[in-house]
Write a structure and sequence with these properties.
Pfam families: Cna_B, DUF7601, DUF7604, VWA_2. The chain is mainly beta. The chain folds into 7 domains: 246 residues, 3-Layer(aba) Sandwich (Rossmann fold), CATH 3.40.50; 174 residues, Mu homology domain, subdomain B (Immunoglobulin-like); 62 residues, no CATH class; 121 residues, Sandwich (Immunoglobulin-like), CATH 2.60.40; 96 residues, no CATH class; 120 residues, Collagen-binding surface protein Cna, B-type domain (Immunoglobulin-like, Sandwich), CATH 2.60.40.1140; 25 residues. The chain is 14% helix and 38% strand. Strand 36 and strand 37 form a beta hairpin. Helix 5 packs across helix 6.
Length: 969
């Protein structure tokens, strides 16, 4: 059993050795004897998403292993004896595992693991603890601590792998590593599997499928786990080696057989000397090591012949004795003729060293030093170092930031970068990367914009420009890197390790030896290491050119002319870049109504990023129009396009970095002034030939009198043109309108200041509010403004500035008054009057009665103290007549005085009619009727008769009164 245990430990070493041997042939099977082959090196160009690109130069250190044959056929011999079911010191985290750990790390052996227990309650109500013996127990578990106290275990739980588990995992990993060579060299590696215990299985068919090989390995079981009794589960070297030897490699492939064990064979299949040790019918041997048996070496000798046959057949044969009595493993390698290929490993460190030597003896290990990377940028490509900022370089090792010594930092010479890593030998599997930022230069954008706009043709470019600008149909892109002056130089170091000095090696004065180009030196452990150096070089593969797509933009014509559209069918513009400078370019553009007044063109934007600020300054762009005529004004700002954190999205630096999607050229309809004359009230009869005069003054936007003559038209109140009206007017000129008419002065430059003043207002009219105001509109918003406003108003584009002068026709109150005088005047008597007008009224005045239908003649009756007010327009002609001439002894007079002025005696005229009068102010017309009794001669002026008459009347009245009282009594 002890020998069986040793054999079990041996197989664990075998599997680990096999995993290590995956490095035997990773690339060695892909090529013949190494020459100065470059390491993996690469140039990459990746967009940063902000209009710039990350350019990376990288090299990966490779301690590559290459066999001396182009192909390899590998036989893996797999032990599935019963000892493979024993547990190893390998622990894996498992949620329901049977073990815990004394620390936060996985156990490494019995001293660092905790046995776990489950708790239950016995019949007496006490806790009892039972050790867990499987990996399926869930719930709360416990461990036995100091003083034999149980404690709840809350850490990670683990299961313990068997040797078979470890073997399967290691073998599958090795299979993957070996077959990985087929990715670049299809079919370069094939694998066959032989499993054995007391009997060996037939070798599997050669395979290059990891999936199929994994399936076979994962299906292996020990005989005892398969419930196979009897003498199964032993170790039969002879049968295993015969099956391995029976595999046939390809004619051009090197065969490799790897045999690893920790003890001696227990069975064989050959009969020796009449089979004195036969105990079974189907196999020979006692089932244990025959080294000390009465018939020693029978099992070993049978296997030795097969091992020698493998070596004699040209296959490479390796043996590793691990964790036990390995004397027979060494003998097996020596007697087979492969004495240099035996390795002894008593612990893990020694086993790793053995694996390394095996790999080195089968392969040539390749390393690199004196590595120099060079790369050149094209002249149309910018970078920080081109602008004098070499600090932009970034260094990484396997993606992590790294600061190399100053001597190993990149150097710049013009547009070329040189990265010399010096005599440092590259670490295996480590990728060293130098990266920096690049972007298309301003000149590149300028050139492509000129090509797209037809300012230049591709054929007209210089050879240098053509070598950098790539044309693909109507698209252009930029080559960032030069075709020459970039690549890698290096020194390749080839290393091989052997157990013995190669035969024929010649000594050197320094104690080393030379053989086949290698210089060998003896190591402390007795092995020999040979090295050979060769210089080599390689060229970078340049990245694809970067597209210059951010240069397209629309030029769009904007019409602001809803006031009075009058557009042409097409219009010609010129787009200037850096107008007035030596670098000026001019691109003609024609916009048409049929293409919605827009066209796509190319521009050369600048470039700025949040990370680096302004990288390329860009240009000013301005649009000009050949002719705008007198009806429109042209406006287009100066644009400064910049790519902002993008290869496509632009902003306008001249407009607070606002997004820029189009270049606008705006035509604005020139504004106009409209002067309107309005007379109130509506329907006022205006005498023929009544004209209203207006003085117009114009000041240019920049100051100074506008001396241009502007045509104007006149419309009536219904908007119809007035025939024969209109003309031209200059600043200070006069425009004449009739009531209800409007003068329109169009095509005035925006910003023109103007004033309008009404002059020579006819006497019969007055301004609406006062003599100093008029109504003024800008657009539709009315304002009350002084007519002599010296500041003036400003003409706005596509806007009608409306000025309306509203006059009232003057009207005055005519008040007819009636007075009755005289000692005999009857103050209650009504007197009839007739009013005659030369023009009809619209309605009957209050207190008057129309006479007939003419609305020119009206009558009224007034008694003493009555008055009638009548409002008539300025200049109205009227006649007022008292109809009864001197009735019943009355005399008639009239007086015309200003309103509010009582007439004096001198104001009266003796007449029944005022005659025809013209109203030019408010007036009082007073008709005075007077009647008096004239006494007899001599009593003319004495009052006695009247007194007597009064007294007589009073006495008569009193007598009548007293008489009525008596009758009543």
């Amino acid at each position: 059993m002890e020998r069986m245990k040793r054999r079990r430990w041996l197989w664990l070493g075998v599997l680990i050795a096999l995993l290590g041997l995956a490095a035997l042939l990773p690339s060695g099977v892909l090529a013949a004897e190494n020459t100065a082959t470059p390491p993996k090196f690469e140039k990459k160009l990746e967009p940063n998403g902000d209009g710039t690109y990350k350019l990376s130069l990288s090299v990966t250190g490779t301690a590559s292993s290459t066999s001396e044959s182009s192909k390899a056929d590998v036989v893996i011999v797999f032990d599935i004896s019963n000892s493979m079911d024993e547990e190893t010191n390998t622990y894996v985290e498992y949620a329901t595992g049977r073990y815990g750990s004394v620390s936060s790390d996985a156990p490494t052996g019995s001293s660092t693991r905790r046995r776990l227990y489950r708790r239950s309650t016995n019949n007496w109500g006490y806790y009892q603890y039972t050790e867990i013996t499987n990996d399926t127990t869930s719930g709360t578990v416990y461990y036995l601590g100091d003083n034999y106290q149980y404690h709840e275990y809350t850490g990670k739980r683990y299961s313990q792998k068997t040797r078979l588990d470890v073997a399967k995992s290691a073998t599958n990993t090795m299979i993957d590593q070996l077959l990985a060579n087929n990715a670049t060299n299809p079919g370069s590696v094939r694998i066959s599997l032989v499993s054995f215990d007391t009997f060996a299985s037939d070798a599997t068919a050669w395979s290059t499928s990891s999936e199929n090989l994994h399936s076979i390995v994962n299906g292996y079981k020990t005989p005892q786990s398969s419930h196979l009794g009897g003498h199964r589960g032993g170790t039969n070297w002879e049968d295993a080696l015969q099956k391995a030897d029976g595999t046939q490699p390809r004619a051009d492939a090197q065969k490799h057989v790897i045999f690893v064990s920790d003890g001696n064979p227990t069975f064989r299949i050959s009969s020796i000397n009449g089979n004195p040790d036969d105990q079974y019918n189907d196999v020979h041997g006692h089932g244990d090591d025959d080294y000390y048996h009465s018939h020693p070496n029978y099992n070993y000798d049978a296997a030795k012949d097969d091992a020698k046959k493998i070596v004699d057949g040209g296959a490479a044969f390796y043996t590793v004795g691990t964790f036990g009595d390995a004397a027979r493993m060494q003998n097996l390698a020596t007697e087979a003729g492969a004495s240099d290929n035996y390795y002894k490993a008593d612990d893990e460190a020694a086993l790793k060293a053995a694996f390394k030597n095996i790999v080195a003896s089968i392969t040539h290990s390749m390393g690199y030093k004196n590595v120099t990377l060079k790369d050149g940028l094209t002249s149309l490509t910018s970078s920080a170092f081109v602008h004098g900022k070499p600090g932009d370089f970034k260094y990484t090792k396997n993606g992590a930031a790294w600061t190399p010594p100053d001597a190993q930092k990149a150097r710049v010479n013009g547009n070329q970068v040189t990265w010399d890593l010096g005599d440092m030998e590259l670490e295996d599997g480590v990728t060293y990367t130098l990266s920096f930022t690049v972007w298309p230069s301003q000149e590149a954008y300028d050139l492509v914009a000129d090509l797209n706009n037809g300012v230049k043709t591709y054929d007209s470019l210089s050879a240098d420009e053509k070598s950098q600008i790539v044309k693909d149909g109507d698209r252009y892109s930029l080559k960032t890197n030069t075709d020459t002056g970039n690549g890698i130089t290096f020194t390749q170091i080839e290393t091989r390790t052997t157990n013995v000095l190669p035969k024929g090696a010649t000594p050197n004065p320094d104690g080393s030896y030379s053989h086949d180009g290698f210089t060998y030196k003896k190591n402390a452990d007795g092995t020999w290491t040979g090295t050979k150096q060769a210089n080599g070089s390689g060229n970078f593969t340049n990245p694809k050119p970067v597209p210059l797509t951010g240069t397209k933009i629309k030029v769009k014509k904007i019409w602001t002319d809803n006031l009075d559209p009058d557009r042409p069918e097409s219009i010609k513009l010129t787009l200037y870049r850096d107008k007035g400078q030596a670098t000026q370019t001019a691109t003609p553009i024609e916009l048409k109504n049929s293409n919605s007044w827009e066209k796509e063109i190319s521009i050369a934007p600048g470039l700025q990023t949040d990370a680096d600020g302004v990288l390329e300054a860009g240009h000013d762009y301005i649009i000009e129009e050949a002719s705008t005529g007198s009806k429109y004004e042209f406006n287009s700002p100066t644009y400064h396009p910049m790519l902002n954190n993008s290869a496509t999205a632009m902003i306008d630096k001249n407009n607070h970095n606002a997004p820029l999607t189009e270049l606008k050229a705006t035509n604005i309809r020139r504004g106009r002034i409209e002067i309107t004359k309005k007379v109130l009230p509506e329907g006022t009869e205006i005498p023929d030939g009544t004209r209203f005069k207006f003085k117009l003054t114009l000041t240019k936007p920049g100051g100074g009198t506008d001396t241009n003559a502007y045509a104007y038209t006149v419309r009536d109140k219904d908007g119809h043109p007035v025939s024969g009206a209109g003309g031209t007017v200059t600043s200070g000129g006069t425009i004449v309108l009739e009531a209800g008419q409007t003068a329109s002065i169009p095509n005035l430059p925006s910003g023109t200041k103007y004033t309008v003043e009404e002059t020579d207002l006819p006497d019969s009219y007055e301004h609406a509010a006062s003599d100093e105001t008029y109504e003024h509109w800008i657009g539709t918003a009315p304002n009350m403004t002084k007519k002599d406003d010296d500041n003036g108003h400003v003409v706005e584009g596509n806007t009608a500035s409306r000025v309306t002068f509203t006059n009232h026709a003057k009207s005055f109150a005519l008040i007819l008054r009636k007075l009755v005088d005289g000692n005999m005047g009857d103050k209650n008597k009504k007197f009839k009057f007739t009013l005659n007008l030369t023009k009809a009224l619209a309605e009957t005045p209050s207190g008057w009665t129309p006479s007939g239908d003419s609305m020119k003649v009206f009558t009224a009756e007034l008694k003493n103290g009555d008055a009638l007010s009548l409002t008539l327009p300025y200049g109205a002609t009227y006649t007022i007549t008292e109809d009864t001439a001197a009735p019943d002894g009355y005399t008639t007079q009239y007086a015309i005085t200003a309103s509010g002025t009582e007439p004096g005696l001198a104001d009266y005229k003796q007449d029944l009619t005022t005659g025809k009068q013209t109203l030019k102010r408010g007036v009082w017309i007073t008709f005075r009727n007077k009647r008096e009794v004239i006494p007899a001669s001599g009593l003319k002026k004495h009052p006695l008769p009247a007194v007597l008459a009064l007294v007589s009347g009073a006495g008569l009245g009193a007598a009548l009164h007293f008489r009525r009282r008596r009758n009543a009594a």
